[in-house]
Amino acid sequence: MPREFPGDSITVSPCNFQAGPWDVRPSHNRVSLSSRDVGLLVREALLSLRSGTAYGCKSVLAPHPDELLSLIGDQAEPWPASGERLNWKLSTLIAVNQEHGVVKIVGSNAHNRRAHQPRSQSTLLLFDKLSMQPLCIMDGTEISAARTGAYASIVADTYRAGVDGLRVFVFGTGAVAMKAIADLMTHCGDRLDRIYVKALTERSVMALVDAFSEAPHPVVAGSPDNLASCHLVITATNAATPLFHEEDIADDAVVLHLGGDETPLELIRETLSLGTVTCDDVSSVASRGSQSLALYFSRQGLSLSEEKTKYGIINFYPNMTLPTRTATSRCLVTCVGLAALDLRLAERIHDMCGNAGQATSVS
Description:
Strand content: 15-25%
Number of strands: 17
CATH architecture of the largest domain: 3-Layer(aba) Sandwich
Number of domains: 2
CATH topology of the largest domain: Rossmann fold
Largest sheet: 8 strands, parallel
Distance between the termini: 21 Å
CATH class of the largest domain: Alpha Beta
Helix content: 25-40%
Structural class: alpha/beta
Order of helices and strands: EEEEHEHEEEEHHEHEHEEEHEHHHEEH
């Protein structure tokens, strides 16, 4: 029997809309999806975006940071205190595919950590596409982390498909980092060597290493010295400054950027000159405007949306079904996470509610 490890599944308890939009009833099912199913569903969703059968948009409202003091009081210690972005915002992500629609609402504020609460939480509303009537509502926090973490193996398979003995360096120990590690274990396990982990505190690193002690592949504490041996570097933090130096990583490393302003300027310049910069969705990365790639341009009075053609910046998912090839230069892949991915997972969970929460294998 395969060994279980943290992040290897997600569990959701949806509430269904019955007679009308205000008649919300628990489904009484705890629905679980394995990391294998999550990865396959995310791949399906990305290919639906490529074909045009799925599409979506996003809106973000960010209060001015000065407003924080009026809410917490002048005597309270404001955030951040450790180089983390405040990331105070209310976001809506909307998508439709061939049968359903989804509205995802995300509330985020790093100051929540002062009260020992999650930095961000998500709520998903699933709709029937034809009638646009709500079908169910569910907590989308774990779904969001899992679908974002699934980018890890997708990028590894797209850019480093021919590499055996795959070594990965992960910055971060939060939910997305944990899901990314579980995703790599599941989808790249036959060629995975080890995963290094580094974070703000040694305590959080050791807690994650201990949690994966029974995993099929080693997860160990990492240091900058380990970066040069890694094929894939994943940044999954809320950092406000770069997490590593450009000269620390391998000459053919792929950097998967999932967090804040954490990629060094020199790496962005190099990959732009090489034409090896991609995104899950260039427009979404540009409109979000808070990650290193978009900030590289905005700090110069430029726009990622306007400069993307000049540098050949494209969405990476059209390359997912091309013949495998191993790139020989550094690549930068920036991902924000897309509502179409949440939608695909939400509709599968809704379908499973009628089957006592038993997962069916994704073909």
